[in-house]
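Students often ask why we bother encoding 3D structure as a string. The short answer is that it lets us treat folding as translation between two languages. Here is a chain of 312 residues written in the first language.
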Amino acid sequence: MSIFAAEALGLTKIYDGVRAVTDLNFAVARGEIFCLVGPDGAGKTTTMRLLCGLLKPTRGQVRILGFDSISQADHVKRRIGYLSQRFTLYGDLTVEENLEFVAEVHDVKDIKSRVERLLAFTRLVPFRRRLAENLSGGMKQKLALAATLVHSPELLLLDEPTTGLDPLSRQEFWKMMFDLLREGLTVVLATPFLDEAERSSRVALLDKGKLLAVDSPAEMKKRFPATAVELICESVSRACGLLRSTKTVLEVQALGDRLVAVVRHPDVDLPAVLHLLKDQGVEVVQWRVIAPSLENVFIFLTRQEKENQPHG
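And here it is in the second language, the structure alphabet:
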């Protein structure tokens, strides 16, 4: 039995001469939540479709629970649940009817018992007789998740499952993810939200089809080769403009009444930043060094990747 739930081995996909993903290498351990994180166009959906066998790699290989995703597709399909970005269930069927239909397709034994358990797990019992087309966005995602769990998969592949959901629905969805983790499932989840990635066991940061880094959020931030500084000051927008115009500051973000600046050499760069702001008439009320965020790490790595690109 493979120790990995999923493996990408030199994974490359080219569409009409355009590289969607290039030479991806990562392994997902059993029993973890693994996040593929990146902006639109990073290659997340292509990677998810390659993992579940919907796409054939141009080069490289995907192994799911020890099976090749293409040559052993039947073994893979029985063991995974895949939730795409689009709601694909039947709007003219009720919540309960949708789950019963999916269970019949998968030849699930004791359908009634399985459906009852999933309705309870997703808190959809009060809505069991509501037509799927009349559900809110959050409830549709709960129903879609329940449908992916009908056949008791070992691995869940979820493509941006919380995009478009309100904060409460996102929170409830993540609670269900951790409940599934406790039951022994493995979850691979694609998301554009770095705050969601903070909750995962490990993260793969993607940009323009390339893998920037793979590790736990804590380890990524621990190895961050720069320093994040929070400054409370007057005229935050003006301060941001000033700091963005200097090479001393690698990155700056405005957050309400304060800003966060990232510098490479704090002993030298921070006094320079404070002097610049004071010289331009911006009073810094308070400042402190803070732990970097995953967003700081991602921006730093994308900047580094861009700088390493050959010019000309």
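Translate back mentally: The chain has two domains: 4-221, 225-291. Keep this in mind for the problem set.
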